[in-house]
Write a structure and sequence with these properties.
Elements lengths: L2 H9 L18 E5 L14 E5 H13 L1 H17 L5 H26 L1 H5 L3 H4 L25
Antiparallel strand pairs: 1-2
Helix pairs in contact: 2-3, 3-4
């Protein structure tokens, strides 16, 4: 793990979930997300980082290519969390979850056909992300969710 990522993990007391609510595992380790992209002059510093799992990082960049507005809104929340200097609040977690659900509702069919169901599975809310338990996040409709039992032939 890079030194700056270790500092983020320590500063924000990251344990089981990253800032986008993805579970941290051996297969899905933490990575450093540049809030301001390197191509735009962003540096690998504590002030420009968000601890995201590999799947969350990939998913965020997938969102960037499909819907830049959702990507930008998520990135703004990540910047806000970094600036406040402590773990995401329940309200921030809810905002993130709602943006992810919005993206999944809009692009599920495209992702499924373009990426293949197994590729999409690893990003899916029911498999990798925790649900925010505050009650303000509405349960997604069944068609928005890829069930683990579905398999690609």
């Amino acid at each position: 793990m890079k030194k700056v990522l270790k500092l983020l993990v320590t500063k924000f007391a990251i344990t089981d979930f990253d800032w986008m609510n993805f579970r941290i595992t051996k297969e899905n380790p933490l990575t450093f997300h540049h809030i301001k992209k390197v191509s735009q002059g962003g540096e690998e510093t504590l002030d420009n980082g968000a601890p995201l799992t590999r799947y969350a990082q990939e998913y965020l960049h997938l969102m960037e290519s499909y819907n830049f507005k959702i990507y930008r809104r998520l990135n703004r929340i990540l910047a806000e969390i970094n600036e406040q200097g402590f773990v995401p609040t329940p309200r921030q977690q809810q905002k993130i979850e709602l943006l992810l659900l919005e993206f999944e509702a809009r692009y599920y069919e495209q992702l499924k056909s373009r990426q293949g169901i197994s590729k999409y599975d690893k990003y899916n809310a029911t498999l990798e992300r925790k649900r925010v338990q505050e009650g303000k996040v509405s349960k997604p409709k069944k068609k928005q969710i890829v069930r683990k039992s579905k398999k690609r032939n």
